[in-house]
Amino acid sequence: MSSHDKIAVIDFGGQYAHLIATKVRRLSVLAEILQPEDRAEAFAPFKGIILSGSPALSAYDEDSAYDKRIFDLPIPILGFCFGHQEIAKHYGGQVEHTQREYGPAILEIRGQSPIFKGLGPEETVWMSHGDTVTVLPPGFQEVGISLAAKDAPPHRNAAIASEAMRRYGFQYHPEVDDTLNGEAMLRNFVVDICGCRQDWTMDLFGEEEGARLREKAGGRGVFLLASGGVDSTVCAVLLGRALGPRQVHLLHIDNGLMRKGESAQVVAEFHKRGLGENLHFADASGRFLGALEGVVEPEKKRRIIGDTFIDVFRDEASRLDLSGCLLAQGTIYPDTVETGGTRRADTIKTHHNRVPVIEEMIRQGLVVEPLAELYKVEVRELGEALGLPEDLVWRHPFPGPGLGIRLLCSDGVPTEAAPDAGDALKRVLEPLGLHGGILPVRSVGVKADLRSYEQPVMIWGGLPWSGAEALAARVFQEVPGVNRCAVDLTGKGFSTARPLAATVTRERLDLLREADALVMEGLRRHGLYRTVWQCPTVLVPLELDGRGREFVVIRPVLSERAMTARPALLPPALLEELRDAIMALPGVSGAAVDVTTKPPGTIEWE
Ligand code: XMP
Q: Is 341 helix (H, G, I), strand (E, B) or coil?
């Protein structure tokens, strides 16, 4: 099938192997994930092997089960963390539970190994281990030691190499973004040491996936739910290329929770791409809003949106008579794994991509997921390779439940702050000449990997934007029961804030759509749309000092994979424009910009 040079990654658990494979593919070299149970013969077609780390296994405790004959193969091998320790152990070194290291460390490079070509003498690397290689195996050199900080005691054998055997081990994780030059280290191994040609591109991925789709579908139709987001759109275009428009049935459901004008745009876009032949549109907004009537609790809203979606999907599928069709899904890799901080998002995505009806179809072999191995950034590259316009490829991720989770609801009962929270906030702000107040509502956040459901703080009084993130961090440290910090855009602050009873209504959604459209246009106008990962606009039903009904929060974030995030600093000119335009909308009581990192806040407010 594939004539590309390729690297095998042995998956010892967790998410490491996928991330390694992704990083290798970013070097334009094909990487495939193999399992510990695979026999050594299966590795013969590869130009090199990478042994992943493992969150569960310990090279010290166990005689790990995989085919050790891989070490007899005449191809280079590189191991990370657990994989590094396995290499050391196999060649006669020793691994012990002695020193732990977590987080960033300084790697001091020793000697002139080709694995560190162009790097050093000091590199920032990311550690997460409790076992250490304490005795270097014969024939190996220590090519790096690590230090937690400049004057800390060194950890030996942080990087080891046998140039003669072409065996290498890193105690740290070069695949994570926090190892700043991890990509260069991987490149040295994959390209220089293994000699892989860098000829695997997203174009080829598209062609190869297309061929697989043709083979799987045969003459059958393929049905795809097309929300208009990047993933489903790239998937639709890939299907269209592979099978021709006649075989591709698209269904776009308007759940009433989309952005302003979005459904019409999505339908128009598919027509423009030649996929209009079997394009179906269902306006189910009435059904969704009906199901959400009177509901306040965020988790309940999510459940209702997810369940209604499945009901509508079922009804539409039987109306369109899609028996005999395959179901395609634009599932991407992070959708299928447990992702720590975003576990909640997964539960909801489970609603859409892994509900019982769909799981049954998967068991029957009726589901295709051509993007299932890719991360968002790769889906975007594939979209570009398929000729999709930049505007669409860089569209911000939009959650399945849409504006439904950005329209906060309330029963009108104020949330009481912790007794000493107000004083603690004053103690932080007053010495800086700033003011603040705790809002009498709650919003979702995440602390130590667990969901928190705590209160937001609003700050005003001439705070320099560059200091906002650090100030927020202090507030979280010192004020109990708080998980978000927003800076007032009007500068007026408030003395009384009162939550109003509010649920999901068309009128509130329309207001949110207007505010959201202003924010999106503003980001585009200032050339910031692509830099910012996502920028939810949130409506909170709050009256401030007797004014208005809706408090508007803008949440611009920078992120790579949405598991963690930092607030994006928007230019003051844009913030002023947004403040004026948003405050002019009817019923708006105030406007603020969220400056919270994730954790402790999530990206969405809910
Ligand atoms: P949080 O709010 O947990 O969000 O920081 C992380 C990322 O996930 C998105 N998100 C969702 N995506 N269905 C989705 O498809 C959901 O229910 C959902 N909830 C959150 C969110 O927009 C962000 O990109």
A: helix
CATH number at residue 510: 3.30.300.10
Nearest to 75 by CA among 43, 52, 53: 43
**Pair (427, 373) in one structural domain:** no
From 144, 168, 193, the end of a domain falls on: 193
Do 214 and 241 meet the contact criterion of CB atoms below 8 Å apart?
no
- Domain with residue 149: its CATH number is 3.40.50.880
How confident is the model over 411-418, as a mean pLDDT?
96
- The reply to whether 175 belongs to the active site is yes
Question: Which of left, alpha, beta for 11 (phi over 0: left; psi -120 to 50: alpha)?
Answer: beta
**Structural tokens at position 104:** 């960033």
Q: How many Å apart are CA 274 and CA 271, to the nearest integer?
A: 5
- The CA distance from 74 to 440, in Å, is 66
Q: Is the C-beta atom of 383 inside 6 A of ligand 1?
A: no
Picking from 211, 263, 265, the residue whose alpha carbon sits closest to that of residue 238 is 211
pLDDT tens-digit map of 453-482: 899 999 999 888 889 999 999 999 999 999
Beta bridge partners of 170: 80, 159
Range of the structural domain that residue 49 is part of = 6-193
The answer to whether the CB of 342 is under 6 A from ligand 1 is: yes
The total number of structural domains in the chain stands at: 3
Choosing from 129, 173, 351, 435, the catalytic residue is 173
The candidate with the shortest Cα–Cα distance to 534, out of 261, 229, 264, is 229
Instruction: Kindly tell me if the per-residue pLDDT of 506 is higher than 50.
Output: yes
CA–CA distance, 562 with 60 (Å, rounded to integer)? 34
Respond yes or no: is residue 485 known to be catalytic: no
| pLDDT tens digit sequence for 86-138 | 999 999 999 998 877 888 899 999 999 999 999 989 999 998 888 899 999 99
Q: DSSP of 508-537, one letter per residue? A: HHHHHHHHHHHHHHHHHHTT-TTTSSB--E
Q: How far is the CA of 374 from the centre of ligand 1 (A)?
A: 17
Residue 364 pLDDT exceeds 60: yes
Cα gap 500→549, rounded to integer Å: 7
**pLDDT tops 50 at residue 346:** no
62 is catalytic: no
C-alpha to C-alpha distance for 50 and 56, rounded to whole angstroms: 18
Single out the catalytic residue among 86, 101, 123, 175: 175
Q: Is residue 557 part of a domain?
A: yes
| pLDDT recorded at residue 344 | 35
Structure tokens at 256: 């009433």
- pLDDT at site 92: 97
Query: Does one domain contain both 182 and 231?
Result: no
Is 602 domain-assigned? Answer: no
